[in-house]
Amino acid sequence: MELQSNHSAPVLTDSAPLSKSRLGGYRGLMSYSPPGAAFSPLSVPWRKTGVFDDVRTIGWLDAMISSSPTHKKFTKEINHELSSPDPEAAYRAWLLKYPSALASFEQIASFAKGKKIALFLDYDGTLSPIVENPENAVMSEDMRFAVKEVAKYFPTAIISGRSRDKVHEFVGLTELYYAGSHGMDIMGPVRQSVPDRNCIQSTDKQGNEVNLFQPAREFLPMIDEVFSSLVRITKDIKGATVENNKFCVSVHYRNVDQDNWKSVWECVQDVIKKYPRLRLTHGRKVLEIRPTIDWDKGKALEFLLESLGLSNCDDVLPIYVGDDRTDEDAFKVLRERNCGYGIFVSKSPKESNAYFSLRDPAEVMEFLKSLVTWKKSSAFML
Ligand SMILES: O=P(O)(O)OC[C@H]1O[C@H](O[C@H]2O[C@H](CO)[C@@H](O)[C@H](O)[C@H]2O)[C@H](O)[C@@H](O)[C@@H]1O
């Protein structure tokens, strides 16, 4: 993912789309790898981009002022088209481009006929509403029940920027697959015994054998070091908090007075300039420091599909629901594979690689319930 600077707002792009041959390098969790296929020791390539690839390219303040810089531009364009400053009218116009997944449910269901749906869900802003304190981003009991129900009928995975343990703790369901740290920490089923240096066998909390795919494992000491430095250096900035997401670190500025955002960025820059193998990106009022490896939620999505034996587009319909710019990597993968649907969760018009939209976590819950109802009724009709 790189930011192109030829727009007033950043445009997220992938540096190199995945090819099947590159997928051959992910074999650890996979059931399909051709026998004898050579394992590349460098199974996760390094990114070509530099340390401050996101923020420095476009200007750090712009990037921090809006966690979704495309938002303003896009709203302005839509308002201009409608000659109306009315946000609801702008949203309705936006829905023409990204139809509601609820309103389009029949269409989605008819496309899913005869196929197995595989569901991928982001956490913050998708299953739980965005709140001021990241520690309080709990999921409602109703949502937990909806996710539990949907997972009875469809293979379901959570792909989050949080640490895997943290998001597992929030969701609290054992019947799902979990990928934390933006996909850099995936717990999946044991599928085969071919050794992969990024993959280790482990046991989950229930004692089941699982495979752990951690392509950035060597970065753990570095991430811990950076976390401690950031905690120390930001301690006097009121409202700034630092979160250790295991393979990445989040520096939150949602609760920092806007006059001090520059100080937050300077602190982050001061620390990461010593680590050329780390890069800086940003999400919703958060700066994120992560390894420079070429790995993101899109690659995690492909990895999970393959490891679960669900990569055949002819009989599988992957659906990915997410609200953040990091989810765009996954939407893009689905679009490029022409297989499955990205559903973008947003209350306001923003450019996306998704096909459909939902307004907020409440609508996400309705969508999950609709999937269950549809599945039950279609089983009844057989
Ligand atoms: O991939 P996700 O599951 O969406 O995680 C992305 C980041 O989410 C969290 O931060 C965001 O949600 C917080 C709680 O609502 C909010 O306070 C914060 O401003 C948002 O950026 C999480 O704390 C981060 O570590 C994740 O990277």
From TrEMBL:
Which SUPFAM superfamilies does the record cross-reference, listed alphabetically? HAD-like (SSF56784)
Q: Which residues form a coiled coil?
A: none
Look up the record and name the pathway of this protein: Glycan biosynthesis; trehalose biosynthesis
Record InterPro entries = HAD-like_sf, HAD-SF_hydro_IIB, HAD_sf, OTSB-like, Trehalose_PPase
Q: Name one GO biological process term.
A: trehalose biosynthetic process
Which cofactors go with this protein?
Answer: a divalent metal cation
Q: What does the record give as EC number?
A: 3.1.3.12
Q: What keywords appear on the UniProt entry?
A: Hydrolase, Stress response
Provide the GO MF annotations for this entry: trehalose-phosphatase activity
Provide the catalytic activity annotation. Answer: alpha,alpha-trehalose 6-phosphate + H2O = alpha,alpha-trehalose + phosphate
Name the domain of life: Eukaryota
Q: What does this protein do?
A: Removes the phosphate from trehalose 6-phosphate to produce free trehalose. Trehalose accumulation in plant may improve abiotic stress tolerance.
| Similarity-based family | Belongs to the trehalose phosphatase family.
- Can you name this protein? Trehalose 6-phosphate phosphatase
